[in-house]
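Q: I have 347 residues here and want to know how they pack in 3D. Can you give me a structure?
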Amino acid sequence: MVYDLSERPVFTYGEVKPIEVKERNIHELLLEMSNTSFQGRALGEAYRVLLEMLQDPDNTVFLGLAGSMSTAGMWKIIKWLVEERYVDVVVSTGAIISEDIYEAMGFKYYKVNPCVDDEMLLKHKYDRFYDTVASELDYRKMEALIKEFVETLPDNKTYSTPEFLYEFGEYLDERNIDSIVSAAYRAKVPVFSPALVDSGYGMALLQAYRRGKRIVLDMVKDFYQLVEIGRQSRKLSAIYIGGGVPKDYVNLMTVAQTLIAEYEEGLHDYYKGFEYIVQFTTDLPQWGGLSGATLEEAVSWGKVSPHARKRTVHVDATIALPIVAHGLITGRIKRVNPKNTIQVILQ
């Protein structure tokens, strides 16, 4: 039997090409990795989706952040993504946007063996994040800084989290504490944190509350503002570092637009899902994980467009994030037409 090897099978979408060892930058390596297999291909393909996302001029990019990224040394990469306007909206856990302030204040995280004696750490007042520790006493100084800011605010004023964090970003910027929220303040990138009190912010707000300072965080107003940003955007994209509440919150924004269109505007079968979307995660769907849905499952909800450019990479974000960021900088990739979303939420 003679096989015709002149054409590739119709059910494939390209050749697997072995990586040649040669001098190249990370941008070039990521592009070539997209022609390998397994999670190497996934990382390369996700990078290619990011390049398309950043070059689309009609696009609003949401960055969802979960996990212990700041204690792991990732916060300056996130700050850089904000400063360079690769993203238009940040949705984060409270931990990521407080534990970067700890280091921005001059305190240090230290490397330890994850098998270190935790009773000894408790005795010496060091808090452990797997293989990293922080001084509990210095951590309280970071929380005290947030409390000092809260006490400057007028009593009984209502804020959404991006409004609260915008003012906090200005407060930090004036004190030369260069963190994610101070960078977002300068870049006019709104930062949402739907579980803000589940962090050092919660401790600071509680202490201020017990001293008589009444600050109201209105989560319905918060969600309204997020949805309005989505409604005023022509196209939607998302980058998810981990999952958790930030991912679900951004995803729910697309579902809310469908309900508004149907019940308020009489539009049926209206969907405005993400056109470009990537996620870096170690979670798996068979345990009910991935924070709500795989990107493919999300199509059934209308959260992701059926024709979206999408890719999930099953990888520790502390591996993927530095590689992707350095791919962007070595490839001299700039964002086309970043959106000024801060005007939407402050009106």
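Q: Anything worth noting?
A: Residues 244-263 form the longest helix (20 residues). The domain at 58-106+140-315+340-346 is CATH 3.40.910.10 (Deoxyhypusine Synthase).
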